[in-house]
Amino acid sequence: MAKIERFYNTFQPDHYDVFVNIDRGNKTINGKTTITGNASVPNIAINQKALHITSVQTADQELDFTTDDTAEAIRITLPQTGKVTFTITYDTKLTDSMMGIYPSYYEVNGEKKQIIGTQFETTFARQAFPCVDEPEAKATFSLAIKYDEHPGETIIANMPEDHVEGGIHYFKPTVRMSTYLVAFAFGELQSKITETKSGVKVGVFATKAHQPKELDFALDIAKRAIEFYEDFYQTPYPLPHSWQLALPDFSAGAMENWGLVTYREAYLLLDPDNTSLEMKQLVATVITHELAHQWFGDLVTMKWWDDLWLNESFANMMEYVAVDALQPDWHIWELFQTSEAPMALQRDATDGVQSVHVNVNNPAEIDALFDGAIVYAKGARMLVMVRALLGDKALREGLQNYFATHKYNNATGADLWKALGDASGLNIGKIMNSWLEQPGYPVVTAKVDENGDLTLSQQQFFVGNGHDEGRQWQIPLNSNYDVAPQIMADKSINLGNYQSLRESNGHPFRLNVGNNSHFIVKYDDTLLADILDHTDELDPITQRQLLQDLRLLAQGQQISYASLIPLMTKFKDSKSSIVNAELYQIANNLKMFAKPGSPAEQELRQFFDSLSKDQVARLGWMPQAGESNDDQLTRPYVLSASLYAHNADSIAKAHQIFMDYQDKLESLSADIRGFILKNEVQNYGSEPLFNKLVTAYQQTADASYKQDLRMAIPSTTDPTLVGKVVSYFEDANIVKPQDLRAWYRSLLINNAGQQAAWNWLRDEWQWLNDTVGGDMEFATFITVTAGIFHTTERLKEFKDFFEPKLDTPGLTREIKMDIKVIESKVALIEKEQDAVNEMIAKSLN
User: Fold this and answer.
1) What whole-number distance in Å separates Cα of residue 121 and Cα of residue 178?
2) What residue stretches are annotated with the ERAP1-like C-terminal domain (predicted)?
3) What gap in Å lies between CA 556 and CA 572, rounded to an integer?
4) Which of 100, 143, 429, 562 could be disulfide-bonded to 127 (CB atoms 3.0-4.6 Å)?
C-alpha cells in the first residue's frame, strides 16, 4: 500500500506563476508553471498527476527530472540548495472527472454549452499544474489563463483580473494560501454584484440557463453573511471580492475556494417565488458554511488532512450561528436538531467508525476522511458543546486571537484549544480530546438505585455488535438539577436521594437539556414515566430528543422497538416540525419489520393513516398564506405518510392537483410538488407520463424541480420503465454523474426497482469506479445501499460483493461498517418483528 511522502519537508514554495492554455474543442491543456521557493536538499519532489512533463529548467539550464506516477510526483535534481526558481512545462487532457480543471455542461434553448471550472480539494490541484499539493505548503499564486475565447464570455478567479495581453488574462497575485483553494472559471456567465459595508464586492455567477431572479437570494445571504462574520470574528475579510459561482457539474456540494466559492446549482440558485422554506434554509446554510471557511480554513488552514475537522466542524457550526443571526424567524437551530444531531448519533454508534481526528497514511484515505456524519456533524456538535461551555464572549475573543496568531499560516487542533482556553480560563483541550480522539459516544444511564439514590453511569453506546473498550468521555451533562456536575468525567456518580431532589426541584430530572452534548440518555422506568407525565411542559427540542434517544436505544436493543409505538400516538398531533421529523423517522423504520405485500404491511399502512389523517385535515394539501414555518415544514411528512397509507382521499386529491397543473408542473408549489409527481407515477403511471417527466428533467434548469422529478421518476412500478431508469444511469445527457447517487437511491428504495438497481451497481462497479472513483462521495454508494438493505438475503449478497473489495484503499472502513449496519438491522428484525407487528395491530383496535 502506498505511503504518503511529505514533499514540503524538503522544498517550501513561496510563489507560483501559473500559465494555462485551455482548448475546449480539443480538450487539451498546455501549461507552464514557474515556482520560487526554498530547497533544503538538491533532490526534491513536486506533485503532479496525469501531467505530461516536457521540460524542467532554471534560467540558464535544463534540469534532470523523472516522473513518478505512483507517488504522483516529478523528482527534480537542482543545481543548488537554498532559494531556487525553476519552470516546469507540461500538457494534459481536459477530462470529465469533475476534478482538476474540467468542463460543466448545460443547455440554453436546446443548444449545448459548457463552462470551465475547477475543483482542487483534496489533492486535485496537481492535475492542473505542478505544485507541492499539501495544505501546509502555502504560497502566493499569479494566474495567467488563455483559452479559446469567444465574445460574451466572462472569466473569474480568486483575485481580480489585472490586465489582458495577447489573449491572456492575468490576475493579481493571491494572498498566501494552500494549493487546494486556487480556483478560476470561464464561460458565458451572468452575474449580480453588490458590496458590503466594509467595501468587499460580493457577486453571484451562473449560466444563462437560469432566470436572473434566481441569483437574488444567494446574493443577499452572501453579503449579509460576510458582514456578520467580519463582526463576529472581529477580523476583516482579507480579499477584495467574494464571488459565488454555480457550476452545472460539481461532485461536492460546494467548495470554499478563497474569493471564488463554487457550488452545485441546487445549493446556490433558487426561484424566490417558488421554493420551499426547507430548500431556502438548505441553500442559506451551504452559503454561510462556505463563507465561514474564508476565515476558518482559508485564512488559517489545518496543517495536515488529519485535522480536516478543524476546517469542516467549525464551518458546520458557524453556518447555523450565522443563519440564526441573519434569519432569526427561521429558528435554524431546530434544523441542526433534525439534520446534524441524528446523522452524527446514528453513524457514530456503529463500531469501527472513525474518530473526528484521524491519522492519514495513504493518499486514498484523504478523500475517505470526508465523512459527513463525523467530521462535519459530530465535529459541529463538539463545537456546539464548546460554545455552550464558553459563551460567545470568550469564544469570539479566542477566535480573534487564533486568527491573529495563525493568519496566512497553518494550525492544529491544539492551537485552537489553546486560544479558546486562554480566553476562557477553561482547559478546553482536556475536555474536548476525549471527543476528538475517540470514536463513538456514551449512553448515560440515569436510574434510582435500591437505596433510593439518583445515579448516573456512562458506557459506550452501540447499534449492533460493538467491542466495548471501556472508553470514557468528559461529558457536559447540561442537567436541569444543580446537583449534577458541569462535566461528568467518572464512569459513574451518585447525586443523592432522588425523592429529596425531586421535591426540591419541582420538576422531572433531565440531562442534556437543549440536546447540545453528543450523548444519549437512558432513563429508568421511574424517571422516564415522570418525564412522560409532563411532556406537555416540554419544548419541541426536548420532546424530539426524548423520541430520538428512545429510537436509538431501541435500535441498540436496549429497549423494545415495540415500546415506541404507543408513544408515537401520543405525539401524532404535534404542531412542531422537528417533533414530526423524529416521529416519522421512527415510523419509517417500522417498514423494515413488515414484508412487502404481507398482512403486516397492510396494518402498518393503516397505522400510518391513523398517525397522519388529522394532520392532513388540519394542514390541507396546498400551502396557505401566512401559515407558520412549522406548518410549512410539517406538511411534507404527513402528506408522505398519508400516501404511503394508501389513503384514498389523499391519492385522489394529489391526482386532482396533478391534473390541474399538468401543463405547468414547474409552477406547482415546491412544498408539495414532489409528492404530487410521485403519487402520479405510482398510482396513475403510464409510459407517456414517464417520458413527459424525463423530458422535463432534461429541459428544466430549476434544481428544486429536478430534485422532485428525481424522486418521482424512479418510483415507477412498471418493470419496463424500471429498466429505462437503469439505462439512464450511464447516460450523462439525462443523469449527470453528480446526480447519479440520488437516482440510484430512489430506485433502490422502490421495492419494484430494488433488484434492478442492485444488479446495476454490481454489474457496473468498474464503470462507476472509472466515472466517480477518486471522488470523496464514491464510497457513499456503499453507505446508501447499506442504509436500505435489511434482510438476510440482501446481507449475504452485500457481503459476497463487497468483502472481496475490503483491501481497496479508501473503502475498507466503509465496507466493514456497512456490513455491521445491515447485520444490526437483520438482528433487530429477527428479535422484534413479531412484537412490533403485534403492537401495531393492537394500536389499531
Assistant:
1) 10
2) 511-823
3) 24
4) 100
